Amino acid sequence: QVQLVESGGGLVQAGDSLRLSCAASGDTMCISTMVWYRQTPGKERELVAGFSTANRIYVADSVKGRFTIARDVAKNTMYLQMNSLKPEDTAVYYCNAGCGVPPQYEYWGQGTLVNVSE
Q1: Residue 73 and residue 24: Cα distance in Å, rounded?
Q2: DSSP label at residue 100
Q3: How would you label 59-94 residue by residue, b for 16+ Cβ within 10 Å and e otherwise?
């Protein structure tokens, strides 16, 4: 079992920055992928950025150039640095971890709300 806890969300103004954290605990040795998703009411969950099984980085076009993903393996923590935030970035941001290669199980955090005002 893997537990994921997100933090760092909040209410900010357009143009501001936030850094989200996702701390993993439990059977962290099995983690092969870590990904940030976001979701707004009435919309499907959107992949924002993540690390693949080969540790390759993916960043969605909608946030490329503004969001940066990083990972501290020693701390079992993944970060999402979000700069130049826009109102359309408002969403609940979720951390996802896959276990195994290829991932056979996946775990989700509880989510952290990012609210960007005009």
Answers
A1: 10
A2: T
A3: beeebeeebbbebeeeebbbbbebeebeeebbbbbb
What tokens does 64 get? 């490329």
Rounded Cα distance, 31 and 99, in Å: 4
Q: Look up residue 14 and give its two tokens.
A: 């357009």
| Listed residue (30, 31, 4, 36) closest to 114, CA to CA | 36
- Tens of pLDDT along the chain (118 residues) come to 999 999 999 999 999 999 999 999 999 999 999 999 999 989 999 999 999 988 899 999 999 999 999 999 999 999 999 999 999 999 999 999 999 999 999 999 999 999 999 9
